[in-house]
Amino acid sequence: MITGEQGRPSAPLLSSASLVIGNLLPLWAVWQGHMSVGDVFIVYWLENVAVWAITIVKVRTARGPGRPGGSTMKLNGRPVDASSGPALSFFFALHYGIFTAVHGVFAFVMASVAGGDLHPASWLLAGLALALSHLGSLWINWYDGGERLRVSSASAMWAPYPRMLVLHVSILVGFAIAMRSVGSADTPSGLEQLAPVLILLGLKTVVDLALHLWERSRAGSRPASVPG
Fold first, then answer.
1. How far apart are CA 225 and CA 146, in angstroms?
2. Residue 5 within a domain
3. What pLDDT score was predicted for residue 68?
4. Among 44, 86, 89, 172, which residue's beta carbon has the most beta carbons within 10 A?
5. Rounded distance between C-alpha atoms, residue 21 and residue 205, angstroms
6. Is the pLDDT of residue 144 over 50?
7. How many CA atoms are closer than 13 Å to the CA of 91, on its beta-carbon side?
8. Is the pTM of this model over 0.70?
9. Is the Cα torsion angle 194, 122, 207, 14 positive or negative in sign?
10. What is the mean pLDDT of the chain?
11. Which among 140, 160, 142 is positioned nearest to 151, based on CA atoms?
């Protein structure tokens, strides 16, 4: 039996609002002086860890069919189907986990180079807020909305990679702007200190929201499988 209502407009709206609010919290924290630009780099890495963990859950629980008429992905020479979830989740955990570990090293290096005091307590609070937004989407769309019955394990596994690549480019742009302020002979004003965060958050929010809605659209256009 399929849980949730396919095409229900409130589900993408709620999860999109949660995503935007979660992305705005670091901006508010920097504005109030609770976080620095360096803290933001680390918070985004913590969010990537949350995406890694949640995607493992999605890959293991996906029950949707593969693309009709499309090329069939193979694992150890065998076609990937719903029963391949555990093997694919292990592959994803290792492969994406390596990227996440490297990202973490660079995040802490960039945070130390970008200047400003670091606030470990804020990392946990902001990271938790972003993780909760992803958990909310997992429940609203994946389980209650029935996406897991329309998305295959292979599709769920590859979904976070475009976001990760674009996010890394956005972080590098924000880091370059932050370094211009650090290298300036004059003490940067509050707005100049906030500018890298504004640009980074703006790019990241647009990317997150676009990919989020794209995933909802793709999942909604697929037929659902009915567990036997």
1. 10
2. no
3. 45
4. 44
5. 10
6. yes
7. 15
8. yes
9. negative
10. 75
11. 142
CA–CA dist 32, 43 (Å, integer): 16
Q: Could you identify the residue written with the tokens 């609203």?
A: 140
CA pair distance 126, 135, nearest whole angstrom: 14
| Token output for 90 | 């292990």
What amino acid occupies position 168?
H
SS in 3 state form for 128-156?
A: HHHHHHHHHHHHHHHHHCCHHHCCCHHHH
> Is 225 a domain residue?
no
Rounded CA-CA distance 93/91 in Å is: 6
Give the structural domain span for 89: 10-220
- Please tell me the total count of domains within the chain: 1
- Name the strand (E) or helix (H) holding 78: strand 78-79
- Which of 144, 37, 56 is CA-nearest to residue 100? 56
The encoded tokens of residue 119 equal 């606030």
